[in-house]
User: Fold PsbP C-terminal domain-containing protein from Coccomyxa viridis.
Amino acid sequence: MTITFRTCVSHSILSTLHSSPSKHSLRHTHVRAIAANDGSTEASCSGRQSEGVVQGLSFGRRQALIGLAAVTPLLQPPRADAIIITPPPGFRVHQDKLDGYYFFFPENWLPVTTSGNDIFYRNPTNVNENLFVDVSSPSSSTFESVEDLGTPGQAAKKTLNQYLEELMSTRLGVKRNGEVVEADQRVGPDGKEYYDIQVRVRSYASRNQLAAYPTDRNKGQELEWERRYVTVLGAANKRLYQFRLQTTDRTFEQSPEALLTIAHSFRCREVEA
Assistant:
Protein backbone atom coordinates (compact mmCIF):
# COMPACT_ATOMS: atom_id res chain seq x y z
CA MET A 1 0.00 0.00 0.00
CA THR A 2 1.37 3.43 -0.97
CA ILE A 3 0.67 6.49 1.18
CA THR A 4 1.15 9.92 -0.38
CA PHE A 5 1.17 13.09 1.70
CA ARG A 6 0.22 16.32 -0.09
CA THR A 7 0.86 19.52 1.82
CA CYS A 8 -0.48 22.91 0.89
CA VAL A 9 0.68 26.01 2.70
CA SER A 10 -0.81 29.45 2.24
CA HIS A 11 1.19 32.53 1.46
CA SER A 12 0.41 33.97 4.86
CA ILE A 13 1.90 30.92 6.64
CA LEU A 14 5.10 31.11 4.59
CA SER A 15 5.50 34.78 5.39
CA THR A 16 4.86 34.09 9.06
CA LEU A 17 7.57 31.35 9.11
CA HIS A 18 10.12 33.81 7.74
CA SER A 19 9.15 36.59 10.12
CA SER A 20 8.31 35.06 13.49
CA PRO A 21 7.99 31.33 14.31
CA SER A 22 5.83 32.14 17.33
CA LYS A 23 3.04 33.63 15.22
CA HIS A 24 2.25 30.59 13.11
CA SER A 25 -1.30 30.46 11.95
CA LEU A 26 -2.93 27.40 10.47
CA ARG A 27 -6.40 28.84 10.01
CA HIS A 28 -6.00 28.87 6.21
CA THR A 29 -5.33 25.13 5.98
CA HIS A 30 -7.60 22.17 6.03
CA VAL A 31 -7.03 18.46 5.57
CA ARG A 32 -8.97 16.12 3.42
CA ALA A 33 -8.56 12.42 2.65
CA ILE A 34 -9.03 11.16 -0.86
CA ALA A 35 -9.34 7.49 -1.75
CA ALA A 36 -7.28 6.82 -4.87
CA ASN A 37 -8.48 4.54 -7.66
CA ASP A 38 -5.58 2.06 -7.19
CA GLY A 39 -6.54 1.26 -3.61
CA SER A 40 -3.98 3.59 -2.00
CA THR A 41 -4.87 6.29 0.51
CA GLU A 42 -3.94 9.88 -0.24
CA ALA A 43 -3.87 12.54 2.47
CA SER A 44 -3.65 16.17 1.34
CA CYS A 45 -4.04 19.65 2.68
CA SER A 46 -4.93 22.65 0.56
CA GLY A 47 -4.20 26.32 1.04
CA ARG A 48 -4.83 29.53 -0.81
CA GLN A 49 -1.74 30.09 -2.94
CA SER A 50 0.99 27.34 -2.75
CA GLU A 51 1.05 23.56 -2.82
CA GLY A 52 3.85 20.98 -2.28
CA VAL A 53 3.96 17.22 -2.66
CA VAL A 54 5.97 14.84 -0.44
CA GLN A 55 6.26 11.22 -1.50
CA GLY A 56 6.19 8.77 1.45
CA LEU A 57 7.79 5.39 1.96
CA SER A 58 6.46 2.20 0.38
CA PHE A 59 6.77 -1.20 2.14
CA GLY A 60 5.85 -4.29 0.14
CA ARG A 61 6.36 -8.04 0.00
CA ARG A 62 9.90 -7.69 -1.41
CA GLN A 63 11.16 -5.77 1.64
CA ALA A 64 9.56 -8.30 3.98
CA LEU A 65 11.24 -11.26 2.24
CA ILE A 66 14.63 -9.53 2.29
CA GLY A 67 14.34 -8.91 6.01
CA LEU A 68 13.29 -12.51 6.65
CA ALA A 69 16.24 -13.84 4.63
CA ALA A 70 18.65 -11.73 6.68
CA VAL A 71 17.31 -13.01 10.00
CA THR A 72 16.88 -16.71 9.11
CA PRO A 73 20.63 -17.68 9.24
CA LEU A 74 20.82 -16.32 12.77
CA LEU A 75 18.09 -18.71 13.89
CA GLN A 76 19.65 -21.85 12.37
CA PRO A 77 22.02 -24.14 14.35
CA PRO A 78 25.71 -23.97 13.38
CA ARG A 79 26.96 -26.32 10.67
CA ALA A 80 29.25 -29.18 11.63
CA ASP A 81 32.12 -27.70 9.61
CA ALA A 82 31.64 -24.37 11.39
CA ILE A 83 32.44 -25.80 14.83
CA ILE A 84 35.61 -24.30 16.25
CA ILE A 85 38.24 -26.97 16.99
CA THR A 86 40.74 -25.96 19.65
CA PRO A 87 43.98 -28.01 19.73
CA PRO A 88 46.01 -28.44 22.94
CA PRO A 89 49.01 -26.17 23.58
CA GLY A 90 51.89 -26.82 21.20
CA PHE A 91 49.64 -28.22 18.46
CA ARG A 92 47.79 -26.92 15.45
CA VAL A 93 44.77 -28.37 13.68
CA HIS A 94 44.54 -29.51 10.08
CA GLN A 95 40.96 -29.69 8.81
CA ASP A 96 39.88 -30.96 5.40
CA LYS A 97 36.26 -29.91 4.85
CA LEU A 98 36.10 -31.46 1.38
CA ASP A 99 37.02 -35.02 2.40
CA GLY A 100 35.72 -34.67 5.95
CA TYR A 101 38.51 -35.18 8.49
CA TYR A 102 40.80 -33.32 10.87
CA PHE A 103 43.68 -34.00 13.26
CA PHE A 104 46.20 -32.22 15.47
CA PHE A 105 49.89 -31.93 14.63
CA PRO A 106 52.89 -30.27 16.34
CA GLU A 107 53.11 -26.59 15.54
CA ASN A 108 56.73 -26.88 14.38
CA TRP A 109 56.01 -29.60 11.79
CA LEU A 110 56.04 -28.49 8.15
CA PRO A 111 53.75 -29.46 5.25
CA VAL A 112 55.24 -31.25 2.25
CA THR A 113 53.44 -30.52 -1.01
CA THR A 114 55.48 -32.78 -3.30
CA SER A 115 54.78 -36.11 -1.58
CA GLY A 116 51.80 -37.02 -3.77
CA ASN A 117 49.59 -37.66 -0.73
CA ASP A 118 46.39 -35.88 0.20
CA ILE A 119 48.26 -34.19 3.07
CA PHE A 120 51.75 -34.76 4.44
CA TYR A 121 53.57 -33.24 7.44
CA ARG A 122 57.12 -33.91 8.62
CA ASN A 123 59.26 -33.07 11.62
CA PRO A 124 62.05 -30.72 10.44
CA THR A 125 64.33 -31.85 13.30
CA ASN A 126 63.81 -35.59 12.75
CA VAL A 127 63.65 -36.90 9.18
CA ASN A 128 62.15 -40.19 10.37
CA GLU A 129 58.99 -38.56 11.77
CA ASN A 130 56.11 -37.74 9.45
CA LEU A 131 52.40 -38.29 8.97
CA PHE A 132 49.87 -38.34 6.17
CA VAL A 133 46.24 -39.27 5.50
CA ASP A 134 45.08 -41.67 2.81
CA VAL A 135 41.41 -41.70 1.77
CA SER A 136 39.98 -44.38 -0.52
CA SER A 137 38.26 -43.43 -3.75
CA PRO A 138 34.51 -42.79 -3.41
CA SER A 139 33.85 -44.66 -6.66
CA SER A 140 35.61 -47.88 -5.64
CA SER A 141 34.74 -48.27 -1.93
CA THR A 142 31.52 -48.84 0.01
CA PHE A 143 32.59 -48.85 3.66
CA GLU A 144 29.72 -48.55 6.11
CA SER A 145 32.00 -48.82 9.15
CA VAL A 146 35.56 -49.76 10.02
CA GLU A 147 34.29 -53.20 11.04
CA ASP A 148 34.01 -54.02 7.33
CA LEU A 149 37.76 -54.70 7.55
CA GLY A 150 37.16 -57.49 10.06
CA THR A 151 38.40 -57.58 13.64
CA PRO A 152 41.18 -55.22 14.81
CA GLY A 153 43.63 -58.13 14.61
CA GLN A 154 42.67 -58.93 11.03
CA ALA A 155 42.91 -55.27 10.05
CA ALA A 156 46.34 -55.07 11.72
CA LYS A 157 47.67 -58.00 9.65
CA LYS A 158 46.43 -56.34 6.46
CA THR A 159 48.06 -53.08 7.52
CA LEU A 160 51.38 -54.81 8.24
CA ASN A 161 51.38 -56.53 4.85
CA GLN A 162 50.60 -53.20 3.22
CA TYR A 163 53.62 -51.58 4.90
CA LEU A 164 55.94 -54.45 3.96
CA GLU A 165 54.77 -54.27 0.36
CA GLU A 166 55.28 -50.51 0.20
CA LEU A 167 58.75 -50.78 1.79
CA MET A 168 59.91 -53.56 -0.49
CA SER A 169 63.40 -52.80 -1.78
CA THR A 170 65.19 -53.81 -4.98
CA ARG A 171 68.59 -53.55 -3.33
CA LEU A 172 70.52 -56.78 -3.07
CA GLY A 173 70.93 -58.18 0.41
CA VAL A 174 68.11 -56.08 1.96
CA LYS A 175 65.47 -57.79 4.06
CA ARG A 176 62.39 -56.28 5.72
CA ASN A 177 60.24 -57.91 8.37
CA GLY A 178 57.66 -56.66 10.83
CA GLU A 179 55.28 -57.50 13.63
CA VAL A 180 51.99 -56.24 15.03
CA VAL A 181 52.56 -54.44 18.34
CA GLU A 182 49.01 -53.34 19.12
CA ALA A 183 45.53 -53.61 17.62
CA ASP A 184 42.65 -52.02 19.53
CA GLN A 185 39.14 -50.83 18.84
CA ARG A 186 37.73 -47.67 20.42
CA VAL A 187 34.80 -45.31 20.11
CA GLY A 188 35.84 -41.69 19.63
CA PRO A 189 34.15 -38.63 21.16
CA ASP A 190 32.26 -38.25 17.87
CA GLY A 191 30.60 -41.65 18.37
CA LYS A 192 32.46 -43.33 15.49
CA GLU A 193 34.47 -46.52 15.81
CA TYR A 194 38.19 -46.46 15.10
CA TYR A 195 40.93 -49.09 14.93
CA ASP A 196 44.25 -48.13 16.55
CA ILE A 197 47.07 -50.20 15.07
CA GLN A 198 50.79 -50.17 15.79
CA VAL A 199 53.31 -52.19 13.80
CA ARG A 200 57.09 -52.40 14.06
CA VAL A 201 59.14 -52.83 10.88
CA ARG A 202 62.88 -53.62 10.76
CA SER A 203 65.19 -53.32 7.80
CA TYR A 204 68.36 -55.38 7.48
CA ALA A 205 71.11 -54.67 4.95
CA SER A 206 74.02 -56.89 3.99
CA ARG A 207 77.63 -55.86 4.02
CA ASN A 208 78.26 -58.26 1.16
CA GLN A 209 75.71 -56.91 -1.32
CA LEU A 210 77.93 -57.87 -4.26
CA ALA A 211 78.40 -61.48 -3.18
CA ALA A 212 77.70 -64.04 -5.88
CA TYR A 213 75.38 -66.24 -3.82
CA PRO A 214 72.36 -65.25 -1.67
CA THR A 215 73.66 -67.29 1.26
CA ASP A 216 76.84 -65.20 1.29
CA ARG A 217 74.88 -61.96 1.14
CA ASN A 218 72.63 -62.99 4.04
CA LYS A 219 75.54 -63.85 6.33
CA GLY A 220 76.60 -60.26 6.84
CA GLN A 221 73.17 -58.66 7.39
CA GLU A 222 72.91 -55.91 10.01
CA LEU A 223 70.03 -53.85 11.36
CA GLU A 224 69.65 -50.78 9.16
CA TRP A 225 66.67 -49.10 10.86
CA GLU A 226 63.72 -49.92 13.11
CA ARG A 227 60.50 -47.91 12.82
CA ARG A 228 57.14 -47.72 14.54
CA TYR A 229 54.08 -47.12 12.38
CA VAL A 230 50.94 -45.87 14.13
CA THR A 231 47.79 -46.19 12.04
CA VAL A 232 44.23 -45.07 12.79
CA LEU A 233 41.49 -46.53 10.60
CA GLY A 234 38.02 -44.99 10.29
CA ALA A 235 35.09 -45.01 7.88
CA ALA A 236 32.78 -42.22 6.71
CA ASN A 237 31.05 -41.22 3.47
CA LYS A 238 31.41 -44.89 2.40
CA ARG A 239 35.19 -44.36 2.28
CA LEU A 240 38.09 -45.76 4.30
CA TYR A 241 40.31 -43.24 6.09
CA GLN A 242 43.88 -44.13 7.07
CA PHE A 243 45.83 -41.81 9.34
CA ARG A 244 49.47 -42.96 9.24
CA LEU A 245 52.19 -41.73 11.58
CA GLN A 246 55.82 -42.84 11.28
CA THR A 247 58.67 -42.50 13.77
CA THR A 248 61.65 -44.48 14.98
CA ASP A 249 60.92 -47.21 17.48
CA ARG A 250 63.29 -45.66 20.01
CA THR A 251 61.63 -42.23 19.75
CA PHE A 252 58.21 -43.76 20.28
CA GLU A 253 59.36 -45.64 23.36
CA GLN A 254 60.83 -42.45 24.83
CA SER A 255 57.77 -40.19 24.32
CA PRO A 256 54.66 -42.14 23.32
CA GLU A 257 52.21 -39.63 24.86
CA ALA A 258 52.85 -36.82 22.37
CA LEU A 259 52.70 -39.13 19.35
CA LEU A 260 49.53 -40.86 20.55
CA THR A 261 47.95 -37.44 21.13
CA ILE A 262 48.46 -36.77 17.43
CA ALA A 263 47.09 -40.15 16.35
CA HIS A 264 44.06 -40.20 18.65
CA SER A 265 43.05 -36.69 17.57
CA PHE A 266 42.14 -37.97 14.11
CA ARG A 267 38.42 -37.72 13.28
CA CYS A 268 36.53 -38.48 10.10
CA ARG A 269 32.97 -37.27 9.62
CA GLU A 270 30.15 -37.25 7.12
CA VAL A 271 30.26 -34.53 4.49
CA GLU A 272 27.07 -32.84 3.33
CA ALA A 273 26.44 -33.37 -0.37
Q: What stands out?
A: The mean pLDDT is 78. The first helix runs from residue 11 to 19. The chain has two domains: 2-75, 83-268.
